[in-house]
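Action item from last meeting closed. Structure (97 res):
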């Protein structure tokens, strides 16, 4: 029973993060006209101890939805997970020599 409870928590965490990512693409209010390039997105530790198996997928999704197209004014990522940090560092632009 504990395994099922843990699985449900992981799914809730992932679904909540997916909802957050989609919400960043639009707005809560249909009258809101805030342009993406004026938005500051703060992601507060999307990797919980329950979802450590999904670090690579969450990192790739974060990059694809929030960072890749450089469309937001700023994206701030906060994390306690060194694995997630290293995954996100892989996506930083390479320095030109």
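Sequence:
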């Amino acid at each position: 029973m504990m395994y099922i409870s843990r699985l449900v928590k992981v799914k809730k965490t992932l679904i909540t993060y997916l909802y957050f990512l989609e919400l960043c693409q639009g707005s809560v209010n249909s009258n809101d006209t805030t342009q993406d390039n004026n938005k500051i997105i703060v992601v507060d530790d999307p990797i919980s101890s329950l979802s450590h198996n999904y670090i690579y997928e969450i990192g790739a999704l974060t990059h694809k939805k929030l960072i890749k197209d450089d469309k937001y004014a700023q994206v701030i990522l906060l994390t306690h997970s060194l694995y997630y940090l290293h995954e996100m560092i892989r996506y930083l632009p390479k320095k030109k020599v």
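Note appended to the action item: The helical segments are 2-25, 55-67, 82-89.
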